[in-house]
Amino acid sequence: MASLSFLCCGILLFASVFLNPVGCHAQSKRGDATHKALFVFGDSLFDPGNNQYLNDTTQEVATTWPYGETYFKRPTGRLSDGRMVPDLIAQFANLPILPPYLQPGAHQFTDGTNFASAGAGVLEATHPGTIHLKLQLSYFKDVEKSLKQKLGDKEAKKVLRNAVYLFSIGGNDYFSFSSMNRKASQSSKGQYVKSVIGNLTSVLTEIYHMGGRKIAFQNAGKLGCLPMMKSLDPTLGSACSEAPSSLARLHNRYLAAVLKKLSTQLPGFKYSIFDYYNAIRDRVAYPSKYGFKEGKAACCGSGTYRGMNCGKTINGTQSFEVCSDPKEYVWFDGGHTTENTNTQLAQLLWNGAPPVTGPYNMKQLFSL
Q1: Which of 199, 193, 356 minimizes the C-alpha distance to 276?
Q2: What is the number of other CB atoms lying within 10 angstroms of the CB of residue 244?
Q3: Could you tell me which residues come within 8 angstroms of residue 247 by beta carbon, excluding any fewer than 6 positions away?
Q4: pLDDT tens-digit profile of 92-115?
Q5: pTM (2 d.p.)
Q6: All residues at 6 or more sequence positions from 118 whose CB lies less than 8 Å from its CB, including other chains
Q7: Which pLDDT does position 33 carry in this prediction?
Q8: CA-to-CA distance for 350 and 364, rounded, in angstroms?
Q9: Are strands 294-298 and 300-301 parallel, antiparallel or unpaired?
């Protein structure tokens, strides 16, 4: 589930204010033979704050209160009240929380880095101005060059071969298609999803040829159940919008087939798919089963289901409401989950078993 470009944009503040906190996270075992880097590719669900460093200020950012209010105690550019799934996975793997790739200053690429960008799609045309997937790949190639300069070719190749690569992308492509092609035929929907998967496969193959062997995916979520979608279409009531969700299901079927095929074609290629679609569906439908009080409305926002405007001010006046305890909510804003939800999702991605996560989970990928 990725963000839409027309979701509320925070006001860009001085970047130095939003540098990620350091010193309070797990220290990586640099130099240890067991050390594995984590490289993250994705959209708003994984963006640690890259968008605040883009020249295009129309892109979605999270640099205003109440974003970051729980864990970081200030906005960091993450579209949540606290940590996101890659932050938690890094901590589970005994790595520091990865900073945004675009954040100024020195980076320890032997730990990995995070290229994700809110609004980004697999296709460049989805949201021009974001860090679309092929641009994220280009940045990864720059990281490879940097590692070779610092470590030499042999050690750099070792870092890339031992690393785990985590993806969550595609939702924005389907939001864009469904909003502009409301009467699309089943055939055209299928062709579009194949185009997205084809471009994604091309990127995965390039990463493989650069040394990447262990790939983890959070598949596309039930896109039509976002509070934002319900705000945009009040006729839905408590129901979910079917059009984007149907594209997500098709994407997930094709993704599973493609990764299985790659594992037979590319020696050493191992993968994990976390069933994000059903994990979110269940928490929206049965929040109390998972320790939540609210599964449909967001903690922060305005309008129906608080689906819009989190963090936004109009003429200096706050234009949204905020719940008293984000831990009670599945959603923090109209399109993004709370840290409490993210913690549950990250645990499933880290050590879940089939059919939720498989054929490997991320803990197993890190151990290989």
Answers
A1: 356
A2: 25
A3: 174, 177, 178, 189, 192, 193, 220, 223
A4: 999 999 999 999 998 989 999 999
A5: 0.91
A6: 2, 3, 43, 44, 47, 50, 51, 59, 60, 61, 62, 79, 130
A7: 57
A8: 8
A9: unpaired
- Please report the pLDDT score of residue 96 as a whole number: 97
Question: Where in the sequence numbering do the catalytic residues fall?
Answer: 44, 333, 336
Structure tokens belonging to residue 276: 């994000």
Q: If pLDDT is split at 50, 70 and 90, which confidence band does 56 have?
A: confident
CA–CA gap between residue 64 and residue 77 (Å, rounded): 8
Q: Which residue has the tokens 């035929």?
A: 185
Nearest 5°: CA angle at 279, between 80 and 207?
A: 75
Side chain identity at 287, as an amino acid letter? P
CA distance 194 to 212: 23
